[in-house]
Design a protein that fits this description.
Layout lengths: L6 E3 L5 E3 L3 E2 L5 H14 L3 E3 L7 H11 L7 E6 L9 H15 L4 E6 L9 H14 L2 E7 L3 H10 L6 E5 L7 H10 L2 E5 L12 H10 L3 H12 L2 E2 L6 H8 L8 H8 L18
Parallel strand pairs: 3-4, 4-5, 5-6, 6-7, 7-8, 8-9, 9-10
Antiparallel strand pairs: 1-2
Helix pairs in contact: 1-2, 1-9, 2-3, 7-8
Length: 281
């Protein structure tokens, strides 16, 4: 692992870097360049997904980097679309396809992308995930966008506690209830859209003032906030200077005054879909 980035120990003992690189909305060819830049900068955790359609480009960058496989942490996700009811063989086929595109024998973390509770098939999917984990082809398994009620069903009706729940989380949507549930049950909280998707968060006067106080950028302040909260975080950028800047958040610390000021920015403002109602084809 890059010495600069601390790791979190997941509930099955697997070590995961606390700060990684996300490739949502990055074209396949561009992902090769962006992931290559991130790896050169010192990132060792890369987060992709089947639906991003850039697993192949991501895999090319991983292969070209020359970094030993055991120093990399690769996450991908099952896009459990509404076009079918998901059974074991469907999940296995999609997992095999992701591995083939990535050019890997295993992934470090495999996530169910959305609960889609109205389809009532995430328990069947999870049981197949348990099988994948026991085979060693995913070192850890988890979920994405699951609400506490969805997690409760998994805990009550299956045998493996998710290692991670990756959810929308940023200062304007702080997710205190899911974070508390995760902490109670040993599930790591991972933040997607940690910088608020460039929709005004980094211009909020409080964030700007804290950045000026520490001689840092607003993005670095927000990422540092995540780190100090204990979140795992995966900022995305295709700009080399920003890719490097986003990694450089371990040389300063927010004080209690900063943390209190950021805490009051929570507006419950969700930028992405609501997991309780989101379905797709």
């Amino acid at each position: 692992m890059s010495s600069k980035v601390p790791s979190k120990t997941l509930n099955n003992g697997v070590e995961m870097p606390q700060l990684g690189f996300g490739v949502w909305q990055v074209e396949d060819e561009e992902a090769t360049r962006a992931v290559g830049t991130a790896l050169e900068a010192g990132y060792r955790s890369i987060d992709t997904a089947a639906v991003y359609e850039n697993e192949q480009g991501t895999g090319k960058a991983l292969a070209a980097s020359g970094i030993p496989r055991d120093e990399l942490f690769v996450t991908t996700k099952l896009w459990n679309s509404a076009s079918q009811t998901w059974q074991r063989d469907d999940v296995m086929r999609e997992f095999d396809a992701s591995l083939a595109k990535l050019g890997l024998d295993y992934v470090d973390l495999y996530l169910i992308h959305w609960p889609r509770a109205m389809r009532d098939d995430f328990l069947a999917i999870w049981r197949t995930f348990e099988e994948i984990a026991s085979s060693g082809r995913a070192k850890a398994i988890g979920v994405s966008n699951f609400q506490p009620a969805h997690l409760r069903r998994l805990l009550d009706e299956t045998s493996v506690v998710p290692a991670v729940n990756q959810i929308e989380l940023h200062p304007q949507f702080q997710q205190s209830e899911p974070r508390a549930f995760h902490a109670e049950h040993g599930i790591a909280t991972e933040a997607w859209s940690p910088l608020g998707q460039g929709k005004g968060l980094l211009e909020v006067p409080t964030i700007v003032a804290i950045a000026q106080k520490h001689d840092r950028t607003p993005a670095q302040v927000v990422l540092r906030w995540h780190v100090q909260l204990g979140n795992i975080v995966i900022p995305k950028s295709v700009t080399p200077s920003r890719i490097r800047e986003n990694l450089d958040v371990f040389g300063f610390e927010l004080d209690d005054e900063d943390l209190t000021a950021i805490a009051v920015l929570d507006e419950g403002r969700r930028l992405g879909p609501n997991p309780d109602t989101f379905d797709y084809n």
